[in-house]
Every structure is written in C-alpha cells, then in structure tokens.
Design brief:
The chain is an alpha+beta fold and 607 residues long. It has 24 helices and seven strands.
C-alpha cells in the first residue's frame, strides 16, 4: 500500500503500482528499449487481471517515450480489457488517460475531455495525487489541441504547484516541460527558452538521458527558430549523441530532420540530403508513417532545388501511398504542391499554376473544416459542462423540495422550485452562449495575433503577405520591410523582462498608429517585425519607416528608465520579377536589415 499525501491534512491509502514496474519506469529514463525488452520477458500466464493491466499500462508509457503512438494506444486499450472499473477505479482512470494521451499524439484526442475530467474528479474525491496530476497533464494537452492556451496554462500552473520536486512519476519538471510546450505551440520560442533550460538542467542533474535528449532537441529547435544557428546546431548534435547512446533511433531521426531543414535554408544541400536519407531509413523501420511522409516531402523539395528532377519525382511517388493514413489531413495538398513545384522546375508553368490554384482551394476547404471541428469540440465540451451544471441544479432542487415538504403544500413547493429552476437554467443558457461567443473570438485572436503587441503573429503575417504577392498585378507596388529592435537582449538583461515587454507593447502601439491603409504589420520573432506595404511609392515607404525609426528613438520619453535607449534597424525590399515569392522577398529584406545592423544600427537600408 502507498500513502499519498494531498496537502489537505488527510492522507489517503490507495492501491498502488507494483514496485517492479516503477523500477522499470526509472530504467526507461535512460534505456527505454531495455525497459520494453524487460517487459517482453515477463510471463503473464500466472498474473492476475490487475497485474496484467499494470503491465500493459507501463508498456504503453514506454512506447509513448519512444514516440510510437499507435503501439501506445493499442497497448493501453489491451490493458483496459483486464480492468474492472468498480474494483480498480484508480487503475482504470490511469489507463484511460494513457489512451487519451496516445490519441492526442495522433491528433484524435478531442473526444477525451469527458473521460479525463472524470479521472480528475475521482482523483480529487479520493485524494489520489499522482492520478490528479496525470489528469491535469492530459487535459492541458487537449486544451492545447483546441488552442485554448489560457485554460491549458491554468491547468499546468496548478499541476506545477501541487507536484513534488522529486519522484518516479509526475514531478514539477514535467509541468515545466508542458509549459514550454504551450509557448512552442504558439511559436513563442523566446518565452519557451527559460522553461526548456530549467527542464534540461533538472534532467541533467538526475542523469535522465531520455529526458535530456528530448530537452536538447527542443532547445535546438527553439534556438534555430530564433536565428541562434550555432547554438541550435550544437544542441541538436548533443541530442543525437545521447539518442544514439540509448538507442532511441527516432530521437536521432527527429533531430536529423530539424538539422536538415536548417541546411536546406542555408542551401547546404549535400548535408541536408545525407541527414534526410538517414532519417527515412529509421522511420521506415519504426513504421512512423507521418514522419516518413514529411521526410520524403523534404527530399522531393530538396532535389527540386538541386535540379535533380528525376530524383524528386521518385520521392513524390514514394510519398504518395503514405497519404492514405487518416493522420495525413494535408497529405494530398502537400503532394499537389510538390507536383506543381516539379512542373514549374521543368518549365511547365501553366500546368503548375492550374494545380496550385486547385490546391489553394482544397487547402481553404480543409482549414475551414478543421476550424469547424475545433469549434464543435469546444461547443460540445461547454455544452457538457452546462449539462453537468443543469444536473447539479436539478439535484439541488430535489433536495430543496424534500426539506420544504413539511412546511408547505406539495403544489407550492413544486411551483416555487420550478420557477427558480427555470430562471437559473435560462441564466445559465444565456451565460454559456455569451461565454462560447467570447471563447470563439478569443480563439480567433490567439490564432492570428500576438497578445503582447496587438500585431499579427508570424503565421498570420506570412499568410497575408503571400496572399498579397499572389494578387499583385504588374502595375502595383509591394514592399517588405524587416525591422529589428537593436540590442533588445541588453534591455531585458539590464532592466528586466517586465520593462522589455513594455518596450515591445509600446512599439506595437506606434506601429498601429503609423501603419493603417494598405499595410500589414506582424511580430515574427522575439524582437523582430515584418511590415508589408502596398500602393505606395518608394519615397512614401521610406518616409513611413523613417517616422517609425524616429518614434522608436523617442520611446524613452514615454517609458521611464534610467539611460534607456531604444532604436531599430530596418531593411526595405520591393517585389519585382526576380523577387516575387515570399522566400526571395523575405531573404532580400532580411539581408538589408542585417546590413543596417552591421553598419551601425539605428538606420534604414533600402535593397
């Protein structure tokens, strides 16, 4: 028996996991494959149903560690077949949460809200801390999937406060990792970095190799996204070294793919080719269809860039049968884009254009369908909450009727209670309708805008610019401006992140005052911004950016801080026949901005 202390003054005695499996859980932190091998050697013939259920529960966890969601789901469901919900509710809920976790990894977990909340309620009522932490973790993943980041953050923060510092199961470091995952989901890598570093230091102090390789991988991704290329590559190579040490082949492949994307961006094609081919072999062996498709997709684009069109076509054909899996919602769209790129590379521009036009239409329909599915999941979740509240209200009404039966007639009790119930139900109905509408607006805002500055976020900004480029006629002007706040890290280091956030917020206000008609402004990095201007002359664009430079320089007049200095470096590039794609235009503006920084900062360079 295991004593679990809830912090409420009342310890609860509950059934616990077999120590043998807890020892294997600890082994899996360094040798997940060995832990699975040990499980495979255990003869289940003489095991009780409870022991068999525990066996499959831990096996499912180890498969999740190695990123085999299909095997994790299959194993969790097998474990549930051995559980009697009435006799072992704690084990039933643990297995259910593991099943939801595997389905969420496969993009199919949205129907798991009800079961996860039941697990959380049972754990709370029975003072089962680890089950409660498990349910908080799984629920936060579900809220991340429907992009309700505020609710996810609330659950993660609650878990962090309740979790122990050390232990074999859920601890504070797990919730720090989840917190970083929320910010990564929102492409806020700069905010995620401190949490990633905290998790890595914890895993390193415990010599948990599996946790270290995952943390290093995420640190590498974050640094590459923030243009800290040298540091990002270093972390990814360290992640690969540890993955190879513990024989986590998929961990190696994930890091290889991230490095390959970097080398493709830098046009170091041979390095990227080697990494992607190695990853493909691993994903074939592990039957990871989703990542294998992604690898073939990158290889096809790589060979198109290298003008090796036969190779590109061969990998398109290898990728095509993989889209049959229901996980590949964008599979056909991706194949169509590859075919259009290949046709364009062959000079068959009319056919490429026709395919792209149809693909854009298909993508719009798919995105609309996915948005509707998310809204349906949100609506269903809140309707369920409303139903639970309604049931609770009706239960209270019945209790009230019983208490009043001796003092009033049955008719008066019924009429009074019915009136109260109708009023409350009506109020609840109105409340949840209003709440749902606010939630929908909030989700739309979070999906498209940066909360701190009020400007568009990276994805929204790039989407708008690509649309403007697509609709641009030969008589129209379009300018892309890259803007970076000079020495912003020094501002954070010297004055703290609170003042740094004020600088970013004020900069966003200045942008919204200056740029209105025919202008789109977005925050695309920690202190990096992108501005798209149409319908204006070269001089008008330069004058607008000069006003932004001056107002930024005057920022210390509005933000009180001793010796605060704020300035920008900006690069302006105009779209033309040679720079008519987002990639080429962005590269041009980015190079101009770095020229401004390299020649003294606080200036504007026109490409």
């Amino acid at each position: 028996m295991l004593i679990i202390w809830t912090g409420l003054g009342h310890p609860a005695e509950v059934n616990s996991f077999d120590p043998t499996y807890l020892d294997l859980l600890q082994m899996a932190q360094n040798k997940p494959n060995d832990a699975i091998d040990q499980l495979e050697k255990i003869d289940l013939a003489d095991f009780s149903a409870n022991q068999k259920a525990q066996h499959h529960y831990f096996k499912s966890i180890f498969y999740s560690y190695l990123d085999y969601p299909n095997k994790a789901l299959e194993t969790a469901e097998k474990g549930l077949s051995f559980v009697n919900k009435q006799e072992q509710p704690w084990l039933y809920h643990h297995l259910t949460l593991e099943k939801i976790n595997a389905m969420t990894s496969m993009g199919k977990g949205l129907n798991g809200f009800n079961d996860a909340e039941k697990a959380m309620n049972w754990a709370q009522q029975n003072n089962h801390l680890q089950l409660y932490l498990n349910s908080l973790f799984v629920l936060s993943n579900l809220y991340i999937q429907i992009e309700d980041y505020y609710k996810a953050l609330d659950l993660v923060q609650q878990g962090y406060e309740m979790a122990p510092e050390e232990g074999i199961e859920f601890i504070k470091a797990d919730f720090s990792s989840q917190l970083s995952g929320i910010y990564i989901s929102r492409n806020e890598f700069a905010i995620a970095l401190p949490y990633l570093e905290e998790v890595y230091e914890h895993e390193k102090s415990k010599n948990n190799l599996l946790g270290m390789t995952v943390s290093l991988y995420e640190l590498g991704r974050a640094h590459l996204a923030l243009e800290n290329h040298e540091q990002g590559i270093k972390y990814l190579h360290e992640s690969i070294a540890i993955s190879e040490q513990i024989q986590d082949k998929q961990g190696t492949a994930y890091a290889n793919n991230e490095l390959a994307s970097h080398y493709i961006e830098k046009e170091e094609y041979p390095k990227a080719e080697t990494l992607l081919l190695n990853s493909a072999e691993i994903f074939i062996q592990s039957e990871n269809i989703y990542l294998l498709f992604d690898t073939y997709y990158q290889l096809s684009n790589l060979y198109i860039d290298m003008k090796q069109l036969d190779q590109a076509e061969a990998y398109i054909e290898l990728a095509r049968p993989l889209i049959a899996s229901e996980q590949h919602k964008y599979g056909q769209i991706s194949i169509n884009r590859l075919e259009a790129n290949l046709l364009a590379a062959k000079g068959q521009h009319d056919q490429a254009f026709d395919i792209l036009k149809q693909t854009i239409k298909q993508q719009g329909e798919l995105e609309a369908k996915q948005s509707a599915e998310k809204l349906h999941a949100i609506r269903a979740h809140y309707e369920l909450e409303a139903k639970n509240r309604e049931n609770e209200l009706l239960s209270n009404k019945n209790e009230l009727q019983e208490q009043e039966i001796d003092r009033k007639t049955q008719q008066n009790i019924w009429l009074f209670s019915l009136l109260i119930a109708l009023l409350v139900i009506t109020a609840l109905f109105v409340y949840f309708i209003v709440k749902l509408r606010k939630q929908t607006k909030k989700l739309h805002y979070l999906a498209n805008y940066d909360e701190l500055t009020g400007l568009r976020n990276r994805n929204n900004t790039i989407t708008v610019i690509r649309r403007e480029l697509h609709n641009l006629s030969e008589h129209d002007n379009l300018f892309l401006v890259m803007v970076d706040l000079d020495h912003f890290k020094k501002i954070n280091d010297r004055f703290g992140h609170v003042l740094g956030d004020k600088v970013l917020s004020y900069f966003g206000e200045v942008c919204m005052q200056l740029f209105k008609e025919n202008t789109f402004v977005g925050r695309v990095g920690g202190e990096e911004f992108m501005i798209c201007i149409t319908g204006k002359s070269n001089q008008e664009v330069y004058d607008l950016i000069e006003q932004l430079r001056i107002k930024t320089k005057q920022m210390p007049e509005h933000i009180t801080a001793p010796d605060l200095e704020v300035s920008i470096s900006a690069g302006i590039c105009q779209a033309d026949e040679n720079r008519n794609t987002f990639r080429t235009l962005h590269k041009c503006a980015d190079e101009a901005m770095y020229q401004a920084k390299n020649t003294g900062r606080n200036r504007i360079v026109v490409s």
